[in-house]
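Consider the tokenized backbone below.
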């Protein structure tokens, strides 16, 4: 099955679009008429450009308001079609898209439309061309692929076929079983787009909010499974109208598009019997068993301050790398533990990252069942891998480039990297503060990057995404979306900032890129942990008294219990499953911070209702210059 994308889906000039599409790995491209009309060159030149990039023109589109017109408009529509046929032949494509008419002049009637398409098919066949008919969701008389198929069926001409578009079908909630009854050889091309679930005018929704399969909320995989059941084996093409994409990087959007198709085909191959021909085989999505470590880069002076902070949270230095200025800090309890790596090397990738971003959590290590399979899937999805130079006796961990150019390591479930590459330090570890694991990791980025990284994680890892939540910052909204697996061994919160005045936006701007902004540790007893943190010198974020007065009434809490929360600056939330407790540290560096949480009774959320109060408190702790305090 060939992959394709419409030129309308990405930004730039036609030349830039073609270069991005080819580099991403697509087989073909739909030429959107406006891209052709604004290009200062002939159709033949466009066709040569496409072929010079190793691509083919899968479709020329759109041809509008054709069927059901009275004379003399009908004759003019056929004349227009003949002119487009001339362009198609010069371009080197044999397929044109006709979308169902929205003209107020159009007269309804399936037989009338079928007659028009049959005559057009005769004209197209004389030139060895084909025409595909598509039902627009807002079409005047035809807005359902079932009606479009009936028109194509009655036209009964080999040059006339059906074009299916996932958005037009899914936006109207049309029964997908109807697709399975269509012969696959009568479908000329399949166009795909996802979108967030929004209750609005269909045309406006389509023109501004489409996104890549897997980035939205529509059941695109179910749609494609129904298509696969027909035996269809033609091109699958992305047609994405999106305001953000029009102003974004053509290269990044094309790469996301290709990744979305590869992931979708893999998903359908695994769910639809007989769909083995779709896409290329790759390992299943990676099962994450837990976050094995978080690694910070810092210069020696800032590394010392970071280590002092870790000590106040109950961490102890337990091992030193055999060859590098890399130290392992750990806190463990009842067989569970947290590993924090502090890298103060003055050369290599970590140091380069420090020079650009400053002290930062630039790498995460995920414990997985099969690290090799994880890397193989990443490569199949077009994700950049990273292999650091190995020292004597080292076996480099498999890793890929992630958010902000940072690293995501895969640690095999039986791989004891700590024994292999580190030497244990003498002395006893400190008692700790009762922290047991990394509960979740929060990464901040520009808002326009959010869909891309959601796709990155959900295509690679066996995890799903939760509905988007708007976090209220005093300086604006931050879009937040969670990626997590069913067991809770992987929880990532992705925060997209629209401006640099929000806390998340400040972090992205001042750190020169996206990255890990906070790490949350879990505890089994938040109150006992709070006492230990206080005794070791940890400064918890000061929360206003007004907050506690509010939650006492809002949740119906006992005054004595609320007093305990207030004394330790513990925030509280509740859902239908249980209770949630949070302690925050103040922001450090350019806005990084730590969090300690306790989940009781199966609480599933992340305390989103507390975010405005936490952010306000963090901003109060920032220096008058507007910069957070240093470590």
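A designed sequence for it:
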């Amino acid at each position: 099955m060939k992959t394709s994308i419409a030129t309308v889906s990405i930004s730039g000039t036609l030349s830039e679009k073609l270069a991005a599409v080819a580099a991403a790995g697509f087989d073909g491209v739909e030429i959107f008429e406006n891209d052709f009309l604004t290009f200062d060159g002939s159709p033949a030149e466009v066709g040569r450009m496409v072929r010079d990039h190793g691509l083919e023109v899968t479709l020329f589109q759109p041809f509008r308001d054709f069927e059901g017109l009275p004379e003399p408009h009908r004759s003019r529509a056929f004349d227009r079609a003949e002119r487009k046929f001339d362009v198609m032949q010069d371009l080197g494509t044999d397929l044109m898209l006709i979308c169902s008419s929205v003209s107020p002049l159009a007269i309804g009637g399936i037989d009338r439309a079928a007659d028009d398409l049959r005559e057009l098919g005769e004209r197209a066949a004389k030139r060895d061309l084909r025409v595909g008919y598509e039902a627009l969701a807002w079409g005047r008389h035809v807005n359902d692929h079932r009606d479009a198929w009936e028109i194509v069926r009655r036209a009964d001409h080999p040059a006339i076929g059906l074009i299916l578009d996932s958005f037009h079908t899914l936006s109207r909630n049309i029964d997908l079983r109807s697709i399975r009854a269509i012969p696959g050889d009568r479908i000329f091309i399949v166009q795909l787009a996802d979108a967030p679930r929004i209750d609005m005018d269909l045309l406006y929704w389509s023109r501004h909010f489409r996104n890549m399969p897997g980035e939205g909320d529509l059941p695109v995989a179910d749609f494609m499974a129904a298509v696969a059941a027909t035996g269809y084996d033609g091109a699958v093409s992305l047609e994405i109208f999106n305001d953000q994409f029009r102003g974004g990087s053509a290269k990044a959007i094309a790469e996301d598009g290709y990744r979305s198709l590869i992931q979708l085909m893999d998903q359908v191959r695994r769910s639809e019997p007989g769909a083995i021909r779709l896409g290329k085989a790759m390992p299943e999505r990676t099962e994450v068993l837990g976050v094995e470590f978080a690694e910070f880069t810092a210069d020696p002076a800032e590394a010392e301050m970071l280590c002092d902070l870790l000590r106040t949270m109950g961490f102890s230095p337990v091992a030193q790398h055999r060859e590098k200025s890399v130290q392992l800090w750990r806190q463990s309890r009842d067989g569970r533990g947290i590993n924090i790596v502090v890298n103060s090397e003055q050369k290599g990738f970590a140091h380069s990252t420090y020079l650009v971003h400053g002290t930062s959590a630039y790498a995460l290590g995920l414990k997985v069942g099969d690290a090799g399979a994880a890397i193989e899937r990443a490569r199949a999805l077009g994700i950049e891998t990273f292999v650091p130079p190995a020292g004597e006796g080292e076996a480099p961990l498999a890793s890929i480039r992630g958010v902000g150019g940072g690293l995501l390591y895969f640690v095999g479930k039986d791989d004891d990297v700590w024994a292999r590459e580190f030497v244990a330090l003498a002395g006893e570890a400190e008692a700790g503060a009762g922290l047991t694991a990394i509960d979740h990791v929060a990464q901040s980025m520009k808002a326009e990057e959010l869909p891309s990284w959601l796709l990155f994680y959900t295509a690679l890892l066996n995890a799903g995404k939760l509905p988007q939540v708007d976090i209220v910052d005093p300086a604006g909204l931050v879009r937040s979306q969670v990626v997590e697996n069913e067991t809770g061994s992987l929880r990532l919160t992705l925060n997209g900032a629209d401006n640099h005045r929000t806390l998340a936006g400040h972090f992205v701007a001042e750190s020169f890129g996206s990255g890990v902004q906070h790490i949350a540790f879990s505890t089994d007893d938040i109150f006992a942990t709070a006492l230990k943190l206080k005794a070791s010198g940890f400064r918890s974020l000061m929360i206003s008294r007004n907050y506690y007065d509010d939650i006492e009434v809002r949740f119906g809490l006992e005054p004595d219990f609320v007093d305990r929360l207030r004394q330790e600056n513990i925030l509280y939330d509740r859902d239908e499953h249980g209770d949630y407790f949070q302690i925050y540290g103040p922001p450090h560096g350019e806005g990084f911070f730590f969090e300690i949480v306790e989940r009781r009774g199966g609480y599933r959320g992340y305390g989103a209702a507390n975010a405005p109060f936490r952010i306000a408190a963090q901003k109060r702790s920032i220096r008058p210059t507007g910069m957070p305090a240093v470590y």
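Residues 250-271 form the longest helix (22 residues).
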